Amino acid sequence: MQDALFYTFAFLTLMFGFLVIANPFSRNPVTSAMFLVLTIISLAGLFVLLHAFFLAAVQVLVYAGAVMVLFLFVIMLLDLKAEERRKIKTLGVVGGLISTGAILAIFLSSLLKAPLGATQSPVVEGGTVALAKLLFTQYLLPFEIVSLLLLVAIVGVVLLSKKDLK
Questions:
Q1: Which of 61, 63, 155, 162 lies most in the core, judged by the most C-beta atoms within 10 Å?
Q2: Binned average pLDDT, 10 residues per bin, the chain of 166 residues
Q3: For residue 29, which of 160, 158, 145 has the smallest C-alpha distance?
């Protein structure tokens, strides 16, 4: 039963993640934001299967709740009519494909360098103390990089929501 649930949640996560980017139903960004909420909920289901109940709850409360409200607020502040008329730029697509290929190459090279049967993450069974120790010792640099990315996103939101005072 656990395997079937894993494959179901994994398929839903991938499908909703694809629909966030390539949405055939609507060009409205609000629809993409709702697919992102469904992606986050599917990821929370995967966390529950891993017995990481705290991470599943944080995923739903923080990301599906607070961050998505912030995204929707920014989407509503922007001029949606002008955004819908935009054409897809070739340079942006090429740059996105190159960056995605680079990330995929880095991922595959690190996956091939890892020895077979070696596990990198300890079994924490959803405990917050072990998670905090692991997060603030071994994964401190990625944690700080994510916080800087969130800061850049907040600054970008403030700059995008400013009205031109000309």
A1: 63
A2: 90 91 78 87 92 86 81 72 62 85 86 70 64 84 85 78 59
A3: 160
Whole-number pLDDT of residue 5: 92
157 alpha carbon, distance to own chain's centre: 17
**What pLDDT does residue 82 have?**
52
The set of residues, in sequence order, having a beta carbon less than 8 Å from that of 72 and lying 6+ positions away, is 30, 33
Matching residue, tokens 């709702």: 34
Torsion from C-alpha of 55, 60, 65, 68, nearest 10 degrees: 90
* Contact criterion met (CB below 8 Å) for 43 and 75: no
Instruction: Tell me the C-alpha to C-alpha distance, in Å, between residue 66 and each of 62, 71, 72, 162.
Output: 5, 9, 10, 21
Q: What is the pLDDT of residue 84?
A: 53
Q: Report how far residue 29's alpha carbon sits from residue 98's, in angstroms, rounded to the nearest whole number.
A: 24
- SS3 at position 45: helix
